[in-house]
Amino acid sequence: MTTRPRRHDPERRDRIIEAALDVIAAHGVAGTTHRRVAERADVPLGSMTYHFAGLEDLLHTAFTRLAESMSRQFAGRLGAARTTEEAEEAVVDIILGEPGSNERTLLLSYELYAFAARHPPLRSVMRDWMERSQAALRQHFEPGTARALDALIEGLMIHRSVDPAPLGAAGIRAIVRKLARP
């Protein structure tokens, strides 16, 4: 009997995670299947169960990666601010989609919120993401303001994604200043 050499593919797990995010963005959590993810990642279907205990494990891992990536971008933008005014401008930039927010990211965020609401183990991913966001904001704002700004950021990003005439930078800046300078 001849055995085939094992294919060395150290990036396979990462490709599967990224493919899962692509599939979630395209089809929603409800339309995400092992088969679709394997096809998108260009891996054998059996790789799915080798690397993940099940679909929920894969979703948890993919959403954790999304939250960590977005948190790094958020913290990086706020960390670059040296003054309160620069921090306020960073908040405006984040709401306007800089850095990193695009239609795909927003769709993934919506899916994470909805999935976490129905699957308690995913709530920890959301809570961790919120805590990291608020910690980045607390570098420049008092805790209650940081929490309010975090909610404002998320809410305005959602509104901007569906509003046919979204609030512009000047309007967002005025709201941020009202919250940041009571």
From TrEMBL:
DNA-binding region residue numbers: 33-52
Gene3D superfamilies: Tetracycline Repressor, domain 2
Domain HTH tetR-type: 10-70
Keyword annotations: DNA-binding, Transcription, Transcription regulation
DNA-binding among keywords: yes
Cleavable signal peptide: none
Protein name (Swiss-Prot/TrEMBL): TetR family transcriptional regulator
UniProt source species: Roseomonas populi
